[in-house]
Amino acid sequence: MPVKSNRSLPSLGLAVLITGLAISVLALRRGDDRLVVYCAHDAEFSDAILRDFECQTGIPVLVRYDTETTKSLGFVNLLKSEKAHPRCDVFWNNELLGTVDLQQADVLEPYRGAGHARIPEQFKDAEGYWTGFAARLRVYIVNTERQPADEAALQRRLESDTDLSRTTIAKPMFGTTLTHYTLLWHAWGADRLKAWHRDLRQRGIREAGGNAATKYLVAEGACDFGFTDTDDFFVAKDDGKPVAMTPVRVDGRTICIPNTVAIIRGTKKSESARRLVDFLLSAETETALARSAARQVPLGPVTEGLPDDVAPLVAWASEGIDLRSLLPARTALIAWLKSEYLQ
Amino acid sequence: MSMAAACGWSLGRSLIVGLLAAPFCFWLHRRLTSLTDPGRRIGWCALALPFLFPTLLSGYAYSGVSLQLINAGLWDALPTTSAQIVRRWLSTHNTLLDEALLTILLLTRSVPVGALLLAFAPRPAYSPAAWHCRRLALPEQANRWTRCRAWAEYLRHGPARGSLAAFGLMFLVCFQEFELPSLLNRPAWTVWLFDAQVGGLALSESLRSTIVPLVCQLVIVVPLWRSLARINGETVPPNSPNAAHHSAALRDTSYLTAAVIIACVLPLSLVGRGIIEGFRALLSNRIQLERVVREALDGALFAILAAVLTLCLTELGQRVGTLRGWLASLAVPGLFGPLVMSLALVRVFQSDWLNAAYRTRISFLVGMILFLLPRAMLVQALIQATRRRESRHAAALLSESPDSFRRLAAHELGWFMGNRARFWSVALLTFWGYLELTIAYLLGPVTIVSVPVLLYNQMHFGKNAILSAMTVLAVLVPVLLFAGAAAVRPLLYRWFW
């Protein structure tokens, strides 16, 4: 009795396999009904906040993070390039000037809700295009086994040491280092900032890939001190490293850099986006971020107690310079930095 | 640092690694092809392990190690002054250590590739005997130029042809590497370009920046592609290593042992430190755990789909002669590395008529297939080299038997003689596609944050137990999927046949 040939079985099996894989892949992916958030804040801290929002509101959220080395600048340029066909609904930036840049480029949609009202004027756009919250401060991180955490002593070393190979700073093209340089460009003028930067490099300052890298160099003793942010400092402190911090000051004022949140123009989920914005700007979220390992400084009034580490930072934050008008300086600075680093 | 400087670093590093790797390639190729089973299998597996070990894992494991050495307790065994000198030297020269480490890791990855290519390099047109006759035939008065031309011809067509192809492939492996220099904070054109692109450099400028590295690679890719296209299964038996040279055996065994330890064992132990605590923390953080598992499963299934489609394409190209040329052309973009290829694809998919596809997984799938295609073709060529058509045909005839026991036996034979190689090819291609970072980052739609991107973003903050646990879990997912499929396969066969 002839046996039916089963040579078609492998081809059929292959077709079934491919179809099955394709379906599985699509099924694992829930539909595009999720609120898309581009988040420049560290995933370690922001994930819990966003999942909390999901639990409380039932609104599913899809988060996209950036890389440590490029931070929010990558998102700012991405959002500009997507302006005609926006894919993002809400932008959670970890600094301010990039968000102002987006406002100027007409990428944002204004919204003034309950959250907007509780944040001080200095840290928000009056029309509601963006609002700041949960800030960090620019600080010197110091290895206490090699150097006391004294602001004046650190300034003297920066000005007079002929060899700065035991001092570190992140490359100023991105992140809060970019904000720091923008402030200096505005306060000192372009020529003085350029001379200062070139002088630091000539004297051998160690340029790291990001604030986490500068923290690491100081914490491990490869450098005596460096520039970083409070959240990176606390990571080293929690690891038991011999580190201390003191704020970086420009003209006697501190550099307080808030997170900012904004709704993207053209979003099809305005209602959900507004709920997320109000959630992020609430006292509960600011308290949660203050209590997280990042110890971010609340800008609005909070009812619950703050950790001991964070309470002193509130005073430093109140001495912060108003960063809102620095966008022209930032644009000019980026153009100059590109010529210094990318060519 | 400019792109030209970064390219200079990559070029110099790749040339040094290529030159250092070449003798090891040659020695190990001779040693392993002269062995018999099971020693040969063990040897080739040990050689291949460093290449197959995920660079994301080894880069993560070794990142910051040079800094941690500063405060390592082992210097306390030295006199105080010496310990201080060593620590001071380490703190100012830790980048040198990172560069040395990167070079060694690239060496361990390059040698297996070169040795494998040497094993399957096509028979040379000139044998050493023919070359000797040619030299004797050269007139006494032949000038230097004539001798140089004869020597160049020998290099092109003689036994050195395979060596040049092997060197070329090793150079490409080093030159195109991204994760290792990125995580070890060493300059490389791939790191420069990735950071610049993600940091906001306009796409057109990014593509212009690729001209210099493209040219460097073109010089290698064109002759290499021609060599790869000639692999036909005919292997050239090398000169057997002299059995009396125990030092050579010791040298080869030492290299294999050291390579496996440095490239695989040490990274696993560095990542494994605190892994149990990391898994405990991960299990208590349901949000993170769910996220990693979901992205890992999704990424693995997607990579399997891409791998299966790629393998189907290569098999189709082999069976249909007219498609072979098209397939070979399609494989060329992948030879330039995932970063350059992805940037070019981003440009293509951001055009008006393809923009809709850019928002979906189609661009990601196309990128992954193009990336896997040259690898799939090489793997396929290696499989064909060992396949015995006559035995497979006999097994296929036996599968027509009316007796179910014989049919099952025939299909089992078919599995061992053909389908098993296909299965593990898919597994290998899946692994490569699943862990590929730059394609996922540049071509993945916004709805996807693939596992390598998720892990890479966090790795720059330094090592911690929970991240180590996430990394191990992410790497294990495809391994377990395929191990499970291999275990279940006999039952499925029994059920079907």
Structure report:
The complex is a heterodimer of chains A (343) and B (497). Chain A is of the alpha/beta class and 343 residues long. Chain A has helices at 8-28, 43-57, 71-81, 97-104, 114-117, 151-160, 175-188, 190-202, 211-219, 230-238, 270-280, 283-291, 311-318, 327-341; strands at 35-39, 61-65, 90-93, 108-109, 131-143, 167-170, 206-208, 225-229, 243-247, 249-250, 253-254, 256-264. In chain A, the strands form two sheets. In chain A, strands 1, 2, 3, 4, 5, 6, 7, 8, 9 and 12 form a ten-stranded mixed β-sheet that branches. Chain A has a two-stranded antiparallel ribbon with strand order 10-11. In chain A, α2 links the parallel β1 and β2. In chain A, 46% of the residues lie in helices and 17% in strands. Chain B is mainly alpha-helical and 497 residues long. The longest helix of chain B has 41 residues, at 80-120. The mean pLDDT of chain B is 80.
List descriptors.
heterodimer; A: 343 residues; alpha/beta; ten-stranded mixed sheet; globular; disordered N terminus; B: 497 residues; mainly alpha; 24 helices; 80% helix; 0% strand
Q: What percent strand of chain A?
A: 15-25%
Structural class of chain A: alpha/beta
Radius of gyration of chain A using CA atoms only: 24 Å
Contiguous helical run count of chain B: 24
Termini gap of chain A: 78 Å
Secondary-structure map with pairings?
The complex is a heterodimer of chains A (343) and B (497).
Chain A: H1 8-28, E1 35-39, H2 43-57, E2 61-65, H3 71-81, E3 90-93, H4 97-104, E4 108-109, H5 114-117, E5 131-143, H6 151-160, E6 167-170, H7 175-188, H8 190-202, E7 206-208, H9 211-219, E8 225-229, H10 230-238, E9 243-247, E10 249-250, E11 253-254, E12 256-264, H11 270-280, H12 283-291, H13 311-318, H14 327-341
Parallel strand pairs in A: 1-2, 1-3, 6-7, 6-8
Antiparallel strand pairs in A: 3-12, 4-12, 5-8, 5-9, 5-12, 10-11
Chain B: H1 3-34, H2 39-52, H3 55-62, H4 65-68, H5 80-120, H6 128-137, H7 144-157, H8 160-175, H9 179-183, H10 189-198, H11 203-209, H12 211-229, H13 246-272, H14 275-284, H15 286-319, H16 321-335, H17 338-349, H18 355-358, H19 362-386, H20 389-398, H21 404-434, H22 437-443, H23 451-459, H24 465-496
Helix pairs in contact in B: 1-5, 1-8, 1-10, 1-13, 2-5, 2-13, 3-13, 5-8, 5-13, 8-12, 11-17, 14-24, 15-16, 15-19, 15-21, 15-24, 16-19, 17-19, 17-22, 19-21, 19-22, 20-21, 21-24, 23-24
